[in-house]
Specification:
alpha+beta; Gyrase A, domain 2; Elongation Factor Tu (Ef-tu), domain 3; 3 domains; 6-stranded mixed β-sheet; 7 helices; globular; GcvT/YgfZ_C; GcvT/YgfZ/DmdA
Amino acid sequence: ARDHGAVFEDVGLWRRARYFPRGGEDMQAAVARECSAVRTAAGVFDASTLGKIEVVGPDAAEFMNRFYINAWTRLGVGKCRYGLVCRDSGFVYDDGVVGRIAADRFHVTTTTGGAAGVLNMMEDYLQTEWPDLDVWLTSITEEWGVIALQGPKARAILAPLVDGMDISAEALPHMALKEGTIGGVPMRLFRVSFTGEVGFEINVPSGRMRAVWDRIWQAGRPHGLTPYGTEAMHVLRAEKGYLIVGQETDGTMTPGDVGCGWAVSKAKPDFIGKRALALPALNAPDRPQMVGLLTDDPQTVLEEGMQLVRTPGTPAPVSADGHVTSSYYSPALGRSIAIAMVKGGRDRLGETLYAPAIDGAAIKVSIVNPVFYDPEGVRVNG
């Protein structure tokens, strides 16, 4: 990243590339260029900071089934699934994609800042609640470097580099994985995407990552491959309405609040948070719900944290209907977009709210579906 002129930021215990300015670009210009490259050609991103845990043993599937809110026993080897973890309270704690490497082995990913906490929580439950399970838990965050290759040309760049592996859409569909080698380097290849485009996450031993990155970079240059940073990643995921735990959530949000009620298993006899999620208070129709916002003026970008009220100019104190959690300018849409948590928001699409600004202005916004780009999800399956 330094070789490409990255500007870095602190993320948890890591320093991550935030954006890659060229020719005197400011952050806004650099991010717009990076986002456009991912949408039209391909982008490459260092995702190594994601937490990684191996869950291994004869009872690995049962452990996963008890720990996560969704089901795991029937997930096939070579398949991936989005996993959501709740506390006993029923509130969202962490999330990530999980791949089943073998019948008795899962490759679990967590948020960058949540890795240690999730592993500690796993160990706590294994040792105190489920000591009968034959399972080993190992942190592998530092063992695997992760190169995210995203965009409509990602497959064309990667296909010549992997050794004897068919990565066509038929052989490696979205949310599948394969083990193999890339230039002789051991690899776990996940077909996953946090951008909504065709995406691959190439897991290789950390000590060999730079060599693999350089090969991908050289192969991708004729295709317009562009490095992108965390700021572009945030914009791309927001365009698709993908949540970030810790940004859309604040420790009091349920899976249903953030649009993930579909993930809550109705068939499992038990999992962490199951009882709490059945409480009437956690299913009330006026709970904050994740929605999208569009400003009346498409060039106005809301401040994250802004409160949302029904009537402009109402003197304080006033009860807010919600708040802005994520806000960006979208190059793909040519306008500003935002994600918010709004009371009963999913039943209020089309309604108008106002975001009071520090200067006294009241910014008019409309509540919309949080998936702004490719709502049918066609591009990710390309």
